Amino acid sequence: MKIAILGVGNLGYSIALGILSQDQIEYESLYLSKRNIESLKSWDNIPKVRITTDNAKAVRNSEKIIIAVQPSQLNSILNEIKEDLNPKKHTIISVVTGRKIEQIAEIVGKDIPIIRSMPNTAISVGQSMTCLSANGSGKKNIECAKTIFNALGKTLFIEEELMQAATVICASGIAFWMRLIRATTQGAVQLGFDADEAQELSVQTCLGAASLLVKSGNHPEKEIDKVTTPSGCTIEGLNEMEHQGLSSSLIKGLVASFEKINQI
Ligand SMILES: NC(=O)C1=CN([C@@H]2O[C@H](COP(=O)(O)OP(=O)(O)OC[C@H]3O[C@@H](n4cnc5c(N)ncnc54)[C@H](O)[C@@H]3O)[C@@H](O)[C@H]2O)C=CC1
Ligand SMILES: O=C(O)[C@@H]1CCC=N1
């Protein structure tokens, strides 16, 4: 596979880190393109990696074109590369929030295979949850996107109309889970732990809770039932959190995020 990432900012950088650190992705070349390449200078010596500001050159020398720019930058980059795109050679994989496959096809043409993808920043450590959707010709090439993103976490193919919801749950979700971890860390400090220990306790417990569900496939309440001793401290804490609106505030936050994303 010859891969290009156009727009190596927060997410593009995380994807590049993930590709470079996973041996399941066999790439012949990885072109990394951004406007100011100063921050990527140290990557210049990595075998098969090419750093450039020339998007068209990156496209000419690649097959899978991952576009990771801000929504407002998308049209200009598509206009820059459209003459170099060939439907028999290229697949566009856009991770741009809120921009539909149809909007990309309007600029590059309907024949170009287009895959819309929504990973999250945990892709840099091979633990992304990545949702994918595609146009007609993109669907034929979906395996290449799955090869990349399955090596960097898990993937789910979804209808494109669910992509905004997936963005909130999975991409913004990283920030939401970070806040929950931070809050439990703050609680642990208040209860007597040093900050470093508090974070370790919180993070490992979070990982343990997620791992229990991954391994068992159980509903969270089944695992909660195992922890909540009758009249015990867990149910006391849990009920107080719910009286204060824990589940309700999380759901309202997700819905607010979803409403905002539809305006982007
Ligand atoms: N940060 C995140 O967790 C996630 C971001 N996204 C989406 O991914 C996209 C990128 O987000 P970020 O990485 O956070 O943005 P960013 O602003 O950090 O990165 C964008 C990069 O593209 C470069 N760029 C802009 N125009 C260019 C051009 N014409 N040619 C080459 N490079 C160009 C910029 O210099 C910058 O390095 C956005 O659409 C965002 O909504 C999606 C999922 C998660
Ligand atoms: O906050 C945002 O708008 C972008 C989309 C998902 C993650 N970051």
TrEMBL record:
Pathway note: Amino-acid biosynthesis; L-proline biosynthesis; L-proline from L-glutamate 5-semialdehyde: step 1/1
Keyword annotations from UniProtKB, A to Z: Amino-acid biosynthesis, Cytoplasm, NADP, Oxidoreductase, Proline biosynthesis
InterPro entries named in the record: 6-PGluconate_DH-like_C_sf, NAD(P)-bd_dom_sf, P5C_Rdtase_cat_N, P5CR_dimer, Pyrroline-COOH_reductase
Keyword rRNA-binding attributed: no
Nucleotidyltransferase in keyword set: no
Annotated ranges, domain Pyrroline-5-carboxylate reductase catalytic N-terminal: 2-97
Reaction it catalyzes: L-proline + NAD(+) = (S)-1-pyrroline-5-carboxylate + NADH + 2 H(+); L-proline + NADP(+) = (S)-1-pyrroline-5-carboxylate + NADPH + 2 H(+)
GO biological processes: L-proline biosynthetic process
Residues annotated for NADPH binding in this entry: 55
Broadest EC class assigned to this enzyme: oxidoreductase
MF terms in GO: pyrroline-5-carboxylate reductase activity
Domain of life (superkingdom): Bacteria
GO CC terms in record: cytoplasm
Annotated ranges, domain Pyrroline-5-carboxylate reductase dimerisation: 160-262
Record-listed NADP(+) binding positions: 6-11, 68-71
Cross-referenced SUPFAM superfamilies: 6-phosphogluconate dehydrogenase C-terminal domain-like, NAD(P)-binding Rossmann-fold domains
Annotated function: Catalyzes the reduction of 1-pyrroline-5-carboxylate (PCA) to L-proline.
PANTHER family to which the protein is assigned, alphabetical: PYRROLINE-5-CARBOXYLATE REDUCTASE, PYRROLINE-5-CARBOXYLATE REDUCTASE 3
NCBIfam families, per database record: proC
HAMAP family tied to this protein: P5C_reductase (MF_01925)
Annotated protein name in UniProt: Pyrroline-5-carboxylate reductase
Species this protein is from: Urechidicola croceus
